[in-house]
Amino acid sequence: MFENYEKYLAFLNQRLEGFFKKQEPYIKCQKGCAKCCKNAEFPYSKMEFKYLLSGFLTLDKEVQDKIENQIKEVVDKKQGFKGDKFLYDCPFLVDDLCSVYEYRGIVCRAFGLIESVKDGKSKIPFCAYQGLNYSNVLDTEKKMITNEKFKASGIKQEPVSFNVGYKFLTEEAFENRFNFKFEEKKALIDWFINE
Ligand code: SF4
Ligand code: SF4
User: Fold this and answer.
1) C-beta of 104 in contact with ligand 2 (< 6 A)
2) Is the Cβ atom of 127 under 6 angstroms away from ligand 1?
3) CA-based angle 30:67:102, to the nearest 5?
4) Which end of the chain, N or C, is more open, meaning fewer C-beta atoms within 10 Å of its C-beta?
5) Is the pTM of this model over 0.85?
């Protein structure tokens, strides 16, 4: 069922690994750092969601129960939410570790690099402002990575951006190349809400 999607994931993982390797002096990601698993929307396609659930089914009953409770809590909060953008902690996060790491979504895999966005602009991961990725070249006043900071850092590799936006990584071209469909996309928690 997931054979072709897993081929895409293997391709993606390899590319991302190369990107992260290239940016090693700037990357502070480590086990237990779960800041990017909190307070966000987490876009998930149907394929990613089904894959995530297949990972959930491999977990011990006790962990499953914990996650189910967390899902319920977030669903309840979302249903009572009146604002525009509902942000939440991912319910698959258990003790600050991803309980379904091998099955996690695409946004979870790509987060942490500088993302190329439109018109030659780029987006620095928010954790740069918390002393994490790219914080060693970040000018916090100018809210950007500057040449001065880069020079002062003494690091050889330049900080560069990559085409790692969710929209790009879930483009039809990948579906065609690996012969699968992402299908509908929405916030992870919305897959648990029957509309
Ligand atoms: S991307 Fe940032 S917040 Fe996420 S694990 Fe890496 S350092 Fe932590
Ligand atoms: S699925 Fe895992 S990696 Fe992705 S946001 Fe949830 S806990 Fe974090």
Assistant:
1) yes
2) yes
3) 45
4) C
5) yes
